[in-house]
What we know:
By secondary structure, the protein is mostly beta strands. The protein has three domains: 39-140, Immunoglobulin-like, CATH 2.60.40.3780; 146-248, Sandwich (Immunoglobulin-like); 251-393, L,D-transpeptidase catalytic domain-like (Beta Barrel). It is built from four helices and 29 strands. It has helices at 2-30, 179-183, 358-367, 396-400, and strands at residues 39-43, 57-60, 76-80, 82-91, 94-96, 98-100, 106-109, 118-127, 132-140, 149-150, 152-155, 161-162, 168-172, 186-191, 196-202, 205-210, 219-224, 230-232, 235-237, 241-247, 251-256, 261-266, 269-275, 288-291, 294-302, 317-326, 333-336, 354-356, 373-377. Strands 1-9-8-4-5 form a five-stranded antiparallel beta sheet, with no helix packed on it. A five-stranded mixed beta sheet has the order 23-22-21-29-24, with no helix packed on it. It has a four-stranded antiparallel beta sheet with strand order 2-3-7-6, with no helix packed on it. A hairpin with a 2-residue loop joins β18 (230-232) and β19. The radius of gyration is 35 Å and the shape is elongated.
Amino acid sequence: MGFLRNAKSAALLLSAVTAAALLTGCQADDGAPDTGGVEASTSGSPSPSQTPTDPVAITSNVAKGERGVPVDRRVSAKVTDGRLEGVTLTAGKTTITGKVAADGASWTADDLLEPDTLYTFDAKAQGQQGGTTERRLRFRTEALSLKQQTYPSVAPLNGETVGIGMPVIVTFDVPVTNKKAFERHMTVTSQPAQKGSWHWLSDHEAHWRPATYWQAGTDVDVDVAINSVPAGNGVYGQEDRKLSFHVGDSHIYRVNTQTHQMKVWVNKKLARTIPITTGKDGFTTRSGTKVIIEKFATKRMRSETIGIGKNNPEYYDLDDVQWAMRLTYSGEFIHAAPWSVGSQGYANVSHGCTGMSTANAKWLYDMSRRGDVVEYSGTNRPMEFGNGYGDWTESFAEYAKGSAL
């Protein structure tokens, strides 16, 4: 009986020790150090005869299962007592690249995030004395409506050849109030290099121009890298835009409203002098530097667009004005005016446009492109800054004051 009692007691003791060991093991798993919700696995555990490997902690600025992560967060990772051996950030089949610091202690993503997107983050680190740690987590970014995203439209077009007065124009469909943040991500570079500046016309529009006219033959690259950059008031950039364009020959057309002549300069050489007519009394043509905005082989021109109604003796409605090139949003054009040939070179008889013979207008139209410069003199009515591409109405020093930076 005593033997059985002792045997039974030993069995109960062994069972209790085994249960305690199992319970201790479960508690060790549940009580693992907090790694910001990152799934973890560690390899390289030493045998009792080996030197213990260093613990390697990997932390990130995003957490496992996190939702509503702001799109302007730049994902990063850090380690202590080790080096990052590999980091990947993916969204489906898309990989977001990044850079590991020279000391291997940190990693930073190259790009910001897309809205309402599931990301997977994987990192692996090597301890200073051996052993590796791996981390994996998934998170989802915040969803954004179209009203919370602003899209940049850019002029000139990719691959376009323009004149020496063409500004870079970026327009946003949703207002940008954090202009400093956006301007830091908008760059214009050229070959040969030319100094220039951004100028914000409004919350919807920013222009860039060089200090002086572009050099003929310049190649220009525009990078509007505002995707997920905060625009203010809970709005973010919707998409990056990159494009390149070329600056063609130097075309400068100098119009003297007093002598009624236009001198056409091509690459600094006088190519032709054209008799013209400009605005008569009450319809004075603006003086100052203008830039060709768009071209039309034929254009309907109606006086109602400049406020002259049908009951006004100055009313006109012309269906097929030829070789028309717009200079202002308010309605100044260069165009063929066969009806005023008798006054061209002698008197100003138009409603503000610059008229010339059909042959001269066709010749000028064929050689001209968007961005060519037209310099007017002889009137006391100035060209307004925002009335077309009026970027050259200010000195560069004044223009640069329009930068948010």
